[in-house]
Amino acid sequence: SVRVDLLQNGQDLPWRDNLPPKKSSSTLRFGYMGQIESIKGVHILVDAFQRAHINEQARLNIWGDLTRNPSYVRQIQLLSNHNPSINFLGRFDREQLATVLAEMDVLVVPSIWYENSPLVIQEAFAAGMPVVTSNVGGMAEAVTHEVNGLLFERGDSNDLARQLKRVVEEPGLLNKLRCGIPAVKQVDEEMQELEQIYFELLQVASASEMETEI
Fold first, then answer.
1. Residue 11, SS3?
2. What number of other Cβ atoms are within 10 A of residue 67's Cβ?
3. CA-to-CA distance for 208 and 40, rounded, in angstroms?
4. What pTM was computed for the model?
C-alpha cells in the first residue's frame, strides 16, 4: 500500500494581530471580497440577496476592483437595482484586510468554478467568521455545512437566497456556526509537519540501507 499525506497549507496571519473588535451593527453584514468576475459568481450573490428580501435585516458589502471588468460591473450593478443595502466598495490594500474583515459578520464565496483551496475562506475563519459558499471543489472541502458555514448549490441564486435568509432569521444559527470554526493552521505549523514527514522518510531510508548491507 502507498501512504498519502494530505497537508493543508499554512497561512501567514500577522494581520490578525491588528484585527479590531467587531463594531456593533443593527443589521447583519454579509461580505464578499475578491475579483469582480463572472467565474467568481458575484452576480449570483447579488441576485440571491435581492431574492432573499432581507433589506431590513441585512446588508451586503462587496469588496473588489471595479475597474478591471466594467461591463460585468455594470451587469451586477443593474442587478442590484440601486438597493441601498448593497454596497460596492472597490478594492482595498492588503494592509486593510483586518479592518475589512472586522466589518463583516458572514463571508460569502459564490464561485461557479472549482476553486482549489480558497485563501479567503481561511482568512474568514482566522477572523472568527462563518462562510457561505458553493458546494463544490475546495470550497466544500473547507466548509462543513451547518458546522462552520453553509453550502448552497453552485450557481443557484434561489438556494443561496435561502441560506442567506436562514442566517438572518434562524435563531442561534450564526452563533452555532461561529462556535464550529476550526483553528487555522499557520505557516510554522505546516513547516513542522513537513519536517516530521522528511524525518520519517529518512528513518525508513536508513533502515532500508542497513537491511541491504546485511
1. strand
2. 9
3. 49
4. 0.85
Q: Is 31 helix (H, G, I), strand (E, B) or coil?
A: strand
pLDDT band at 214 (very low <50, low <70, confident <90, very high): low
Mean pLDDT across the chain: 90
Percent residues over pLDDT 70 in the chain = 92
Helix (H) or strand (E) holding 134: strand 131-134
Q: Rounded to the nearest 10 degrees, what angle do helices 42-52 and 157-169 cross at?
A: 50
Question: What confidence tens digit (pLDDT) does each residue in 52-94 have?
Answer: 999 999 999 999 999 999 999 999 999 999 999 999 999 999 8
- Say how far apart CA 191 and CA 198 lie, in whole Å: 11
Other CB atoms within 10 A of residue 63 CB: 22
Number of H helices, E strands in the chain: 8, 6
CA separation (Å) from 57 to 1, 61, 68, 167, 196? 54, 14, 31, 10, 49
- At 184 the pLDDT is 79
Query: Which strands, in side-by-side order, build the sheet including 58-63?
Result: 86-90, 58-63, 28-33, 106-109, 131-134, 149-152
- The C-alpha atoms of residue 154 and residue 120 are separated, in whole angstroms, by 18
Q: How many other C-beta atoms lie within 10 A of the C-beta of residue 58?
A: 21
